[in-house]
Design brief:
Elements: E1 4-8, E2 24-26, H1 28-32, E3 47-54, E4 57-66, H2 68-71, E5 78-82, H3 85-90, E6 98-104, E7 107-113, E8 131-133, E9 136-138
Parallel strand pairs: 3-7
Antiparallel strand pairs: 1-6, 1-9, 2-5, 3-4, 4-5, 6-7, 8-9
Length: 139
């Protein structure tokens, strides 16, 4: 089971491209590896509110499986974390900043590594293998 995943923020994630997407896309591989739960694909766009510990407080993001393509009334087949816009703005997130998600004993936490403020090139121990997909890094 994966205990840490890291997402490098893109212009699209931050809403800087003019698109109307909601939240950041979560690769199926991260779901299959057990970091985020699989949601019931027989229900249209199932969602789960997930609390994350951040800087001594709890922040809740919606975790949604947009599955219209499977249900037959849409084009999407993807997992997303939504409700993050205010979090990004309040924490001055920028392109290339890293969101570090951790899962420990069933509890999630999130941290931000601002690339312009910290030297944080490698979010994992260099001795362990990394798999990188679509701006996500995970074990």
């Amino acid at each position: 089971m994966v205990s840490k995943v890291v997402k490098r923020l893109t212009r699209n994630d931050l809403g800087l491209t003019g698109g109307h997407q909601a939240g950041i896309c979560v690769p199926f591989k991260i779901v299959k590896l057990g970091f985020f739960p699989e949601l019931d694909s027989s229900i249209k766009n199932p969602r789960l509110d997930i609390p994350f510990s951040f800087a001594g407080q709890t922040i809740v993001f919606s975790y949604v499986y947009y599955n219209g393509r499977l249900i037959g009334d849409g084009t999407r087949n993807e997992y997303r974390l939504t409700g993050m816009t205010k979090f990004f703005k309040d924490n001055n997130c920028a392109v290339d900043d890293l969101l570090e998600f951790s899962l420990n004993e069933g509890k999630y936490s999130i941290d931000i590594k601002h690339q312009n403020k910290e030297n944080y090139d490698d979010p994992f121990d260099l001795n362990e293998p990394l798999i990188i997909r679509a701006d996500w890094i995970y074990r």
